[in-house]
Amino acid sequence: MKQKLIKNSADELIIFLSGWGCDDIQFQNMKSSKDVLICWDYINTDFDFNFSGYKKYYLIAYSAGVFMAGLIKDKLPETELKIAINGNPLLTDEYFGIPKNIRQIFKDLNINNYMDFRKKYLVMNPQELDFFNENASRRTFESCLEEINMLEGYAAENIIPLDFDFAILSDNDKIFIPSHQREYYKGKYKILKNSAHNVFYYFRNFDDILSF
User: Fold this and answer.
1) Is the pLDDT confidence value at 20 over 90?
2) pLDDT, tens digit, 9 for 90 and up, residues 76-93
3) What is the pTM assigned to this prediction?
4) Is pLDDT above 90 for 124?
5) Quick one: CA torsion of 184, 190, 196, 199, rounded to 10 degrees?
6) Phi and psi dihedrals of 117, rounded to 5?
7) CA 79, CA 68: separation in Å to the nearest integer?
8) Residue 31 forms beta bridges with which residues?
9) How many CA atoms lie within 13 A of 18 on its CB side?
10) Residue 197: closest CA among 100, 119, 99, 89
């Protein structure tokens, strides 16, 4: 697992577990008054960070990061708030997780169909697509394919999910089925209207996520 600490001379830390295929470049537009630890690339589950020196901690997990939070929960500090965004702790469950046919689409991505995938599955409109492309991950398809295979392997293990305080769910998510996510989180969710799976056109500030 890769990590990058964004320092803002703060005594509070946001731990951000990003999604499948992401990197730190994808969230370079995101601002915060707090320090932010961005985590990505789940080809391995190595997680090592010195959390001393902070007074408060917050966890924001996006997409596959919601699942990864369960894998590394014993290495995380006690947090003030835990927020899941468009993700589920049961990553490969056919009902609550990412359906098998969608995971296969991930595996079939290549240079020729990736733009169509972004347009169809990740964003709502051309403006969002332009913004997404401007801040797109620079990871290779090979790296992303290895990551999805590893995630499926982790999900086959008996992992106790992390319990989130609430979830932010897009009403037009095409990766995780919105109605199934509302059922899973049992009232502990807030709906982001007119939004697809990628929400970072709307949230350009981590603090706004915490106060949503």
Assistant:
1) yes
2) 999 999 999 999 999 999
3) 0.97
4) yes
5) -120
6) -60, -45
7) 16
8) 205
9) 26
10) 119
